[in-house]
Design goal:
InterPro entries: CAP_sf, Cell_Envelope_Struct_Comp, SLH_dom. By secondary structure, the chain is α+β, with helices and mostly antiparallel strands. It contains 12 helices and 6 strands. Helix 1 packs across helix 6, helix 4 packs across helix 5 and helix 8 packs parallel to helix 12.
C-alpha cells in the first residue's frame, strides 16, 4: 500500500454526475443556516465540498458513499496514479469517480460491502451510515482506536465500528446526541458529514483539540501522526536506558541492569496513563501491580519517574528530576525498566522504573 504522504498533492479530481456541482462563491449556499455554516464554508473554500446547480448545499440530504470518498480524497490531496482495480461487481473502470474509489481502497480507507453470494460491491449511491462514517474517518486520518470506552446506549460492544466511534468521541470529533445515543445505523446528512470532517482536519472546529489532536500552528490543519512500530518503540526504550547508564558511569556509579519485568511494568503503566487514565495500573501500588502480573511478592522497593518528548528530551527531563521523583543518580538503584507509548497526537510519553537494593 502506498503512503498518501509520499504522493504529490496536486490533482484535478473527476467530477461525476452524482457529485453536486458548486455554483457561485465558495461557501455561499442558500439552504445553509447557522448550523455548521462555518464548517461548510471552510470546506467549500478549500474546494472539498460542493453544492448543487440550484445554489443549495443539500444540508439534509444523506451523503452517499461515493460523495464521502470524493470529499476525503480531495481533503487528503491524493494524486491518482493508477491504483489497481478493487474488483467491485457494481463499479468498474470508466464509471464516475472510479479513480477516487480505487485510490481509497488501496489506501485502506474503504473496503466495500460483501453480498450474500460472497461478491464484493461498493454501492456508490447508497447512503453512508454514521457507523461507516466513523470507520472511514479513523482509517483515513489514523485516529487511534485504543482508548477510553464511550457509553453510547445504542452502540453494542459487538458493533464493528464500536472502536472507531469511541475514537471519534475521544478525539472531540463527535459527542453523539443529548440522550447518550449515537444512532450508528442512521444515514448521515451532508451537513453533518461536513461538520465532522472539518472537526477532524481543523483546530478551529474542535474544542478538544489541545488534549487529543495535533494541529499545525500556522495552517490550523490536522497533522497526521507518524506511529512507531512495536520494534521502533523497543529501540527507543533501550536508547533511553543506555543514556541513563552512560550518565551514571560518568559519575562513577554502577550501571543499572535492564530488567525485563520492569520494562513490561513501565510499558503497561505508560500505556494506561495515556490511554486509560482510570485503569488500575495507573493508581495501584507497585507491589500489587507486580504480584498481579507475575504471581510473586515484590520484596524490593520500586520507584518511577515520568517524562515526555523525544529520547533526548526525556533524558534531559530525567536529569532534572523534581524533589518528589527519584534521581537517576541514586547509588542504591540496581535495575531499570523503560516504557514508551504515543498519545493520540503521536507525541511520546515515558515511564522509567527503578528497582532498589
Amino acid at each position: 500500500m502506498r503512503n498518501w504522504k509520499q504522493k504529490v498533492v496536486a490533482s484535478i479530481l473527476t467530477i461525476s454526475l452524482i457529485i453536486p456541482v458548486q455554483v457561485g462563491a465558495a461557501g455561499k449556499f442558500s439552504d445553509v443556516g447557522t448550523r455548521f455554516s462555518k464548517e461548510i464554508e471552510y470546506l467549500a473554500g478549500r474546494n472539498i465540498v460542493k453544492g448543487y446547480n440550484n445554489g443549495t448545499f443539500g444540508v439534509n440530504e444523506p451523503v452517499t458513499r461515493g460523495e464521502a470518498v470524493v470529499m476525503l480524497t480531495r481533503e487528503m490531496g491524493l494524486r491518482f496514479d493508477g491504483a489497481p482495480d478493487p474488483g467491485f461487481t457494481d463499479f468498474k473502470k470508466g464509471d464516475g469517480f472510479y479513480t477516487e474509489v480505487a485510490e481509497a481502497v488501496e489506501q485502506g480507507i474503504i473496503q466495500g460491502k460483501t453480498g450474500k453470494d460472497g461478491s464484493l460491491y461498493f454501492d456508490p449511491e447508497g447512503s453512508l451510515t454514521r457507523s461507516h462514517m466513523a470507520l472511514i474517518l479513523t482509517r483515513a486520518y489514523d485516529i487511534p482506536l485504543d482508548r477510553q470506552d464511550v457509553k453510547f446506549k445504542d452502540v453494542p460492544p459487538s458493533l464493528e465500528a464500536k472502536q472507531a466511534i469511541n475514537a471519534l468521541a475521544n478525539a472531540g470529533i463527535t459527542i453523539g446526541y443529548d440522550d447518550s445515543s449515537f444512532h450508528p445505523f442512521s444515514s448521515i446528512t451532508r451537513q453533518e458529514f461536513a461538520a465532522l470532517l472539518a472537526r477532524t482536519v481543523s483546530v478551529d472546529f474542535n474544542k478538544m483539540s489541545l488534549q487529543f489532536v495535533n494541529y499545525d500552528p500556522v495552517t490550523h490543519q490536522r497533522v497526521k501522526p507518524v506511529w512507531l512500530s512495536d520494534e521502533e518503540i523497543r529501540v527507543k526504550e533501550e536508547q533511553l536506558a543506555d543514556l541513563i547508564n552512560e550518565a551514571r558511569s560518568e559519575k562513577g556509579l554502577p550501571v543499572l541492569k535492564k530488567n525485563e519485568r520492569l520494562f513490561e511494568m513501565a510499558r503497561l503503566k505508560t500505556r494506561a496513563f495515556v490511554r486509560f487514565p482510570h485503569e488500575d495500573y495507573v493508581l495501584t501500588q507497585h507491589s500489587n501491580f507486580y504480584k498481579e502480573l507475575y504471581g510473586e511478592e515484590l520484596t524490593k522497593e520500586v520507584q518511577e519517574n515520568i517524562a515526555a518528548g523525544s529520547v533526548e528530551k526525556a533524558f534531559s527531563r530525567l536529569m532534572k528530576n523534581s524533589i518528589t521523583e527519584p534521581s537517576i543518580f541514586e547509588e542504591n538503584q540496581t535495575d531499570i525498566g523503560v516504557g514508551l507509548t504515543q498519545d493520540m497526537d503521536g507525541s511520546y510519553k515515558w515511564f522509567v522504573f527503578f528497582l532498589y537494593k
